[in-house]
Amino acid sequence: MTVPLLEVVDLVKDYRLARPSWFAPHAIRRAVDGVSLTIHPGRSFGVVGESGSGKSTLARAVMALEQPTAGTVRLDGHSLFDLSSRELRAARAEMQMIFQDPYGSLDPRQRVGRIVAEPLINLAHVTRTQRAARVLESLRAVGLVAADADKYPHEFSGGQRQRIAIARALVTRPKLVVADEPVSALDVSIQAQVLNLMSDLQREAGVTFFLISHDLAVVGHLCDDVAVMFHGRFVETGPAAALFKAPKHPYTRELIDAAPKLEEAPIVAVDAPPRDEAPGGCAYAARCRFAQARCREAAPALRPLGDGRSAACHFPL
Amino acid sequence: MLLAVADLAIDLPTPDGPRRVVHDVSFTLDGGDNLGVVGESGSGKTMTALALMGLLPEGAAVSGVLRFEDRDLVKLDEAEMQKLRGDRIGMVFQEPMTALNPLHRIGRQVAEPLILHRGMSRAAAWTEAVRLLARVRLRDPERVARAYPFALSGGERQRAMIAMALSCSPKLLIADEPTTALDVTVQARILDLLATLGAQSDMATLLVSHDLAVVARHCRRVLVMYGGTVMESGPAEAVLRDARHPYTRALLEARPRAGAPRGERLRAIAGAAAPAGAEPRGCPFAGRCPLTMDACHATPLPTIELAGDRRVRCLRVGPDGRLA
């Protein structure tokens, strides 16, 4: 068995909320609640979920941008949170991040060449000459030309800016690229260019993506394995094709049905006001069409259902 | 006919002189009808909607006819326009947080148009506001009426804004990306709610969206815009199932399809959209379009009328409606 590229074990991230009064204790909100996942080299992994599900917090913890409350993140077998800051910098070269907003993530006062070179500056073993060559290689990989290195971000369209962000992520030749909603700010026609580029990088440069998105079609397009996140937990995991074709968790079903499609009318869940959430029960029970008494009493654990699939549901579909 | 737009053109002031961001836009809307306006950024869809509401940026020049209930909106002054807005014409925007006043309770904001346009007393308007909040299926409408915007979720805020837009029973509802900031499960419910409310009260809806699938699902007719003008229009189902304009086709093929094999090549549209008004005479899609001919850059767009109440504006479309 090969060493997994990324291994996340029982990750928990709590945020302290504002105190209701001076002497009251801080309330705690658990954004990520015991998430585990394994990414093997060459198998891109996608997390789908709605706003507030904890998917972006998970991505930030994987990038060691946030210290988790509990749990482990291992990159190539090394635990990220046990590394010294120097070792962490070296580890970061193996994993880079792309953000949603190609306008906010590029410094407008720096030339593209400098922006793309930035992740290399902290790497002692890359010389200045090598740096220039790597920047050029990276720009070419995303379909930009050498002359673009001397321009400023404002001279590019949204899609081209996202290419620059991807070039910056590729410049260290990372094994893993964490992409948080990489195409959701782009127009449809531009989105396709960026998705095609990401597919090419998977195939030709051996890049593995850890993709965070609310868009099932985007995740299905790029990922081999998928996890569906709800209220800080994975409620279903499995190979993308099988999971989207025949979801096991009612929440996955709801997400698939609600996504607008050209081919067919979506099946809209009954627009009934949600019931009160039962503490201790399944977090989805209040919205679930199939909820039974047991769902409001005990939270189901994520358990295997065969064929590499798992669901956290007492009564999988 | 509730609304008739003919040859709408909008010029926005820029440091280099006025720039035409919308031109040659014509369409009609009957009571109870719903029309989807689809386009990417810079297509002119939002400017068209803003022109109908009289909310264009300062210095914008509008020409053409915007006839709403026998009045030409282009000729109305701001005071007359203000009387229509929130009364005969309701509005819903993408981000309810920017449209709602954070310092006022939801109930007061929903009640305000009733006091302003209907002359209701505060108490009567408040009661009506609670009824409206229930009508948009908000849970516990009395609680929501007393709440401030920050205390509500995104979906609840959008429902509250719809309640506000509907308070005076408008004949026309203009919704600009009303669900873009919301989760898909919430989006589906809100769009269904809009459709139900429209049907109940014979209200026409103009839904502006970047999402073809949203329009396909919720609109009877569709207008596909690009570069400031209309490329194709007609019944939504016919246009989206059997698109005739190369741009509509390209847009349909560029979407990743749910359930398609992983890594399937998407048909990306080469290049990026030129800013509206950059191609003053020819087709704005010329150059990006795989079927571009020399004439496309210089010839004004023809309008080809097809059977089934459809229109296509492309030099490559023959009189039989087929792409040549």
Give short descriptive properties of this protein.
heterodimer, A: 317 residues, alpha/beta, eight-stranded mixed β-sheet, four-stranded antiparallel β-sheet, 9 helices, 12 strands, 22% strand, globular, B: 324 residues, 11 helices, 32% helix
Give a verbal description of the structure.
The complex is a heterodimer of chains A (317) and B (324). Chain A is an alpha/beta fold and 317 residues long. Chain A contains nine helices and twelve strands. Chain A is globular, with a radius of gyration of 21 Å. The two termini of chain A are 32 Å apart. Chain B is of the alpha/beta class and 324 residues long. Chain B is built from eleven helices and twelve strands. Chain B has helices at 45-53, 78-84, 96-99, 106-118, 122-135, 141-146, 154-166, 184-201, 212-218, 236-241, 246-253; strands spanning 3-12, 19-29, 34-38, 61-68, 71-72, 89-92, 172-176, 204-209, 221-226, 229-235, 304-306, 310-312. In chain B, strand 9 (221-226) and strand 10 (229-235) form a beta hairpin. Chain B starts with a strand and ends in a 12-residue tail after the last strand. Chains A and B meet through helix 5, helix 6, helix 7, helix 8 and helix 9 of A and helix 8, helix 9 and helix 11 of B.
